[in-house]
Amino acid sequence: MTDARLDQAIRAAFERQSAAYDIPDFDALLNRAVAARSPRPMPAWLSVAAAAAVLATVALMHVEQRALESDTRLLMAELTRGTYWRAPSDRALDARAGARYLGVPDFPDMTYSFDEVKTWL
Amino acid sequence: MQDGLEHNPNVSKDALAAHHRAAYGWALSLCGYDAATADDVMQQSYLAIIDGSARFDGASSLKTWLFGVVRNVARRHHRARRVYVAVVARFGAQPRDGSRAMADLRGGDTVGVALATLPRRQREVLELVLWAEFTLEQSAAILGISVGSARTHYHRAKQTLRARLERDDD
């Protein structure tokens, strides 16, 4: 078999192979590619879901904030009631020494009556 | 009308259209003659050209560059498919396989059957040189191999085919 005949036979085989398929329309394929690049509008149900998620997050943050405020109020109430927290190494407290110990904010303008001492463990 | 090729100022819609048929044939070959996959690969190739991720700088002919883009997209597609097959196999399912071997399609076509049994790279070089009419240098650039390697694949492929066809003739 000559080289030219072999080349011709191979070309013909590839040609038959290609001809067995419908070539998709160039414009249609290009338009599909252009459409695939364009940002698509968000579906309505997705917008509703996103809005609901935002609302739920805000509500949760509000609840947490309220809980935090509630904890702070409880702590302040306990402090003003006269419970005093101190570190284990501290010696016995003198009520007149004021609230200048570990973990307790210093409120120089307030008057405390220390009737109970608790120790952090 | 906008043709969507603003990111590739050196490419015109008409020039792309002129090579569309050949490029699609190349995509078919790279995708094991699975038309649906070839469609996807061609669309993704055009998308890469439209969004500028594949940019034509005129260093080669437009046809050489386009064939290279199609090959790169097809390779990415095959890698993604391998991951898909591995994941599906991990869960014990049977992956959908749309690819068919060339021999299945050509039936009694002696040359077609012989071509289908060639190593993939040899068949690709033959297709680029004899069907798409690229030079060996251009084919090497498209396949990302050296010219010497492309030449070796080309000659070995023809040697193998000649031997098979002559044996069939006897």
Share of residues in strands of chain A: 5-15%
Number of DSSP-assigned strands of chain A: 2
Q: Please report the total strand number of chain B as a whole number.
A: 0
Residue ranges of chain A: pLDDT <50 for 5 or more in a row?
A: 87-92, 109-113
Q: What structural class do you assign from the helix and strand content of chain A?
A: mainly alpha
Order of helices and strands of chain A: HHHEE
**Number of continuous helical runs of chain A:** 3
What is the straight-line distance between the termini of chain A? Answer: 97 Å
Model regions low in confidence, pLDDT < 50 over at least 5 residues of chain B: 95-107
Mean pLDDT rating of chain A: 72
Could you say which overall geometry of chain A the principal axes of the C-alpha atoms support? rod-shaped
The chain pair forming the largest interface, with residue counts per chain, is: A-B, 28 and 40 residues
Main sheet of chain B?
none
Name the quaternary structure.
heterodimer
User: Globular, elongated, flat, extended or rod-shaped: what is the shape of chain B?
Assistant: globular
What characteristics describe this protein?
heterodimer; A: 121 residues; mainly alpha; two-stranded parallel ribbon; 3 helices; 7% strand; B: 170 residues; 8 helices; 69% helix; 0% strand
